[in-house]
Here is the input.
Amino acid sequence: MVSSAQRWRVLALSSLGGALEYYDFVVYAIFAPYLAAAFFPARDPLTGLLVAFAVFAVGYLARPFGGLVLSHFGDRFGRRRVFIVTLLTMSAATAGMGLLPSYASIGLAASVGMVLLRLLQGFVLGGELAGAITYVSETSPSPAAVSVGCGAIFACVNSGVLLAALVSLAVHTSLPPAAVAAWGWRLGFLAGGVVGLIGFWLRLSLEETPAFAERRAIVAKAPIAEVVQRFPGQILTGIAVLGTMAGFNGLIFAHLPAYLTRIAHYDPIAATTAQNVCLAVMSVGLFLSALASTVVGRRRLLQAGAVLLLIFGYPFYAALAGHRFDLTATLVVAALVSALGNGVFAAIVADLFPTPVRFTGVATVLNLAVTLFSGFGPLIATWLIARTGDPASPGWFLAACAAIALAGSLALPRYEGQLALEASPP
Here is the structure.
């Protein structure tokens, strides 16, 4: 039996690692305009930004492959080793981005190098968040504790995004624009490498989860094959359910920094400040949503968030594009709405698969959904604007993601209950 103190320790280390991992991954999107100029120069700034976001999407394409490989080892040989390796590799790739010479210095090799580093980032991140969800769900004594624990993880993961935004704010306020464009953006990547080493050192103290240790004798020999053959309905349902979370996060975390300054023409400092407030509110909202789910139910909160985003997705972007309301207030409202579903999705996905294949099941669902909705979200949003000329058109993509999540939630009652079943006495 894992003590309460041990569970909170595991939760803290899992959350810290997730926050550092997402800081590394999201800092690319925050500095995307500078990366476009440094590694993918083009005559038209919008074209350069499109290329930069295409490379961002390439990183997401590597996630499912990374999830397959890393979750295979996690289900076969234990969660701990994978959990440690992912953080070290992610940090090295991020530091490499900060040190990579620009296109002006080494030509096409710079563009290729950035693509390869993005692929490496996506590959290891494919196992990171799935590992965190698996770790916490298998050290929690009840389904309600799983909800709270998973909500806490993503509140802290969201704080990692907030940290990246704060670094962006510090860089933009302490350096002149010419210095930011020339070399200041590199500071965010180098800082990620440093904090990653701290997380790596802390994770060395983690032990294997009790649930995996108890079932070590019945581990799946081919976890992905078993997941695909035995749980196809859970896979499709999980991917659909994650539509709201992945679609919203892909736009807010990756697309919005460039959108607000380049498309909607907000002041960069004002835009970054508003995003920081949005992310801080969202972090609190995620945890409160997880707590509320122990009373209201995960599925109802997910459905409420999906309905609201379905209705207000386009009006949200229209308000941003038209400067109709205060920017900070608009983003805060969006953060609170998104938190309804984003605070419960991890516990929902963990509950779809049994322990022998949970790591692989969670990784498969999470990475496919994030690749489809988050990875291509910024690219699709930018394409919609270029195609239609309507700066509010990304709202249609957000509404479509919400509709998919709402449809997926209707199938959940058929597949829920794995965690409760495992917690019951034999």
Notes: The mean pLDDT is 84.
